[in-house]
Specification:
The chain is mainly α and 162 residues long. Helices cover 60% and strands 4% of the residues. It has a two-stranded antiparallel sheet.
Amino acid sequence: MTEPVAPSEPTRASTERGEGDGPRFSYAVAALERSIRRSLSGILQQFDLTVAQYTTLSLIRRRTGYSNAQLARRSFVSPQAMHEVTSELEARGLLERAQSSSHRTIRPTYLTEAGHVLLDQCDAAVDVMEEAILAELPEKWRSEVALFLMAAARTLGRVDTE
């Protein structure tokens, strides 16, 4: 029986290209995404929020008026899942969905005051996590790394930065 590989020691066959090349870029980004999602889940649990709910609140704060379909695309979830997310957030008084003057079925979303307050509290906790992630990266590179990652995501057609 072979010893299991520790999470911090990825197997060469699945992650490395050659001697001394280090892990594949795509593997490193995927590992970071999984780690961030786990950490976010733990942080947000204290606020009784899921990652999808936090993402939704954050998107609405950046730009009010999104429809459920727009929120679903930007959150990488199905429209049905987003309906559940926004219904729960609305029931908790964290967002409101208004009637659209031009569409009967599209209901633009807006944060309530309680939504803003809770999101500010969540952001403070998430800032601590992000600072820990970036601690070894020089300050001058931090925004460039984030911009590069968004550009890479756009290249693959997975991110709408509207």
